[in-house]
């Protein structure tokens, strides 16, 4: 029987984070899924996946280059499921995430819940959560054309939507996800439940280096031109969150600071 859900995970060098993500998949209350790990020309991954092969259906795909959008497109092409679930290698899911998303998508094409943004420190080779906050905003398509409050992590959607809109746009690179949801909104039904079941790592700096800024600017301008957006200010995720915190909506929160799948004492 083909898996109902195909989970697509591009990876490069974050070994511990990937292990923690796989641990959170082991404890999902819905288990009819496959995991497609796409290695973006990073170090070998077989040794990381080996402990999970008897608990998860995992396939490793070697991309041969470091390009996270191409990796996602490759993962979708490899997928055997009717539904695609998107993740980064440092995300985690609460145990009922897939089960609940499958209920939501019965009347939709595309489902993405709210998230918990967590900060962490390293202790004994593992991430330890120091604080967390909701990333939870009402779905407003007009607002979405001004600032993206869409986190693709944990998104579940019908694979057939690609037949209408094509693959992820590799030419806009950093803005593939913003581009994706804007295109889906024109062709499919989107549901955004007030339930924070995605755990999204939020460490890092608010600032970009001059080189990064210049590179992102090219992709950003290309994205804006594609969607007819004018007078747009380029912002990173930290800036958007700081500006939008007062608009956070009430959402169901079950995260307590302990990673799902981690055994007691770890």
Secondary-structure element order, N to C: EHEHEHEEHEEEHEHHEEHHE
State the shape.
globular
Distance between the termini: 35 Å
Identify the strand order in the major beta sheet: 3-2-1-4-9-6-10
| Helix and strand composition category | alpha/beta
In terms of per-residue confidence, which ranges show pLDDT below 50 for 5 or more consecutive residues?
none
What's the mean pLDDT score? Answer: 92
Please describe the biggest sheet, giving its number of strands, its sense, and whether it closes into a barrel. Answer: 7 strands, mixed
What's the gyration radius in Å? 18 Å
**E-strand count:** 12
- Beta-strand portion reads 15-25%
Oligomer: single chain
Describe the SSE topology.
Blueprint lengths: L4 E7 L3 H12 L6 E7 L6 H4 L7 E6 L5 H11 L4 E4 L5 E2 L3 H8 L5 E2 L2 E10 L2 E10 L5 H4 L11 E3 L2 H5 L10 H10 L4 E2 L3 E7 L8 H18 L9 H8 L7 E2 L13
Parallel strand pairs: 1-2, 1-4, 2-3, 6-10, 7-11, 11-12
Antiparallel strand pairs: 4-9, 5-11, 6-9, 7-8
